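job 3f2a | input accepted
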Amino acid sequence: MTIRVVLVDDQALFRAGIRMLVDSQPDLQVVGEAADGREAITVVRATAPDVVLMDIRMPVLDGLAATAELLRDADPPRIVMLTTFDLDESAARAIRQGASGFLLKDADPEFLLAAIRTVHGGSAVIAASATRELFERFTDAAPRPVPPAFRDLTEREREIFALAARGLSNAEIAAREFLSEATVKTHISRILTKLALRDRVQLVVFAFEHGLA
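job 3f2a | predicted structure (213 res):
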């Protein structure tokens, strides 16, 4: 299966470099590009990609506003924010509203390619330690009350939740808990369903916002 990607950045040279990199992979394909958030919305809705690489700071409509609008669609793609700063409050805001992670624009090519595959597969969090640091830096409000849905998790599901909230991948959780990856995947799926969360990144957000991290 080919993972369909849309690139959104106001720098044409940057987009050209990323396109060459992505299109060099047999399982990845760039299906559209946009130079601002408004154009991105049109392109994404026309091409239905699996993953969008979205710059945060752009003219006309920035990446935060474009992401918020796209995530209101019935079947939105995974959106990864592109930022120049490793601790960017805008990236934290985007993830809170539903983005699936963030990447530094100067990330190593192999890391960027792995990130696209990771967010599409949903088995791990992109740059888990950086994501945790991002929320530790920009989550200063008092924890919210733990919702009743969390109490519906089984003891095993709470154990898996705690490990996933730390950013461990399915493979890492499986090795730690002496389970198969398929079993871990099933547990994660049930946890996300019970807590009405879209993906593992939202699980991390949930844990931080409710003082469960």
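job 3f2a | The chain has a mean pLDDT of 91.
job 3f2a | closed
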